[in-house]
Structures are given as C-alpha cells and as structure tokens.
Prior knowledge:
The chain is an all-alpha fold.
Amino acid sequence: MGDGWAEELHAAWCRAAVRQRDPQWSKALLGSPSAPPAAGPGTASLAERAKLLSVLPEGERADWVAEFVRAHGLSEAFQLLGVCVVPWAGPLGRAVVDALDAAREAGGYPWSFSGVMGLAERCLDPADAARLEALTRAPADTTETSPGAAAYWEEAFQRLASTLHLRASMLAELIPPS
C-alpha cells in the first residue's frame, strides 16, 4: 500500500468488520492481545479494539481481554472490560483479580483503580468471593509501598468480597427451589 494510507485502510477495515459483524476479520484486525497497545495491527485505539471485541463470541472476547490484562495490566483495560459479558468468565475474572493484587503489591493506592474495582463489583462472578478472602488480609506496608496503602487495599478487597457475597445471596434468593 502507498505511503500514508496504512492507518486509513486499517480503520476502514475495522469499521467494515464491525458493521458486518464479522468475527474472523475482527479477530485478525485485533491482532495479539500481548502486542504493545501502540504498535501493530488493531492497536490504533482502545475504542477501536473494544468495537472489534464486541463482534467476537463471548468466550473468545473474554479470553482476549484476559490475555490483554495479563500482558498490560489494568491501566488500559477499562474500555475493553466493558464489552465483556457479565458475569466475567473464569479466566477473565482471575486475570483482573491477579492484576489488582499485582497493583497492590506494587505499592500504589486502590483509588487509582476505582473504575476497575467498580466494574469488578458488578461483573465478577459471585463465586469468586471466596478467592478474594485471601486478599482481604493484606500484608503490612513495606519500604516499597506508599504509607497506609496496605490498609486501603485491605478495605477495598473487603468491600469487593462483601459485594460479591451479597450478590451471591441475592442470586440464591432469586433461584426457585427445585
């Protein structure tokens, strides 16, 4: 292709794949989830990736986003998480929880991930509450962490686990006895 047309051609292919609801083209245009977000095909923007993902079957979509989260963390995953079917599939839920745990261990504060935490409260499978129990007992602050961060993370994980327990109880009440 001629110089200067790569971006326009790629964007047109993406629009066509989304309009035609073509999962094969969408998957090809997305490229690898582990590719750096600013390089390679399918990476022009997260909004473009989210549109392409919406065309994929539910399981493939969740697997692609889970791999993206494992490769790049949660900073750029918010838009992508929003197109995944709720409750999140097991691998996607595990990838998000693992990334939140990694962010805690890196020493930041949970409010940097408040959007993802809010999504997790609504989208994680309530069965994941038991897995979160271990994260509610956060390790003490170390020299690498910000002061008080461990307590904030402990509280954030407790709130998340509590919400999942509540959702599980509500679901149990809605299921008729057999």
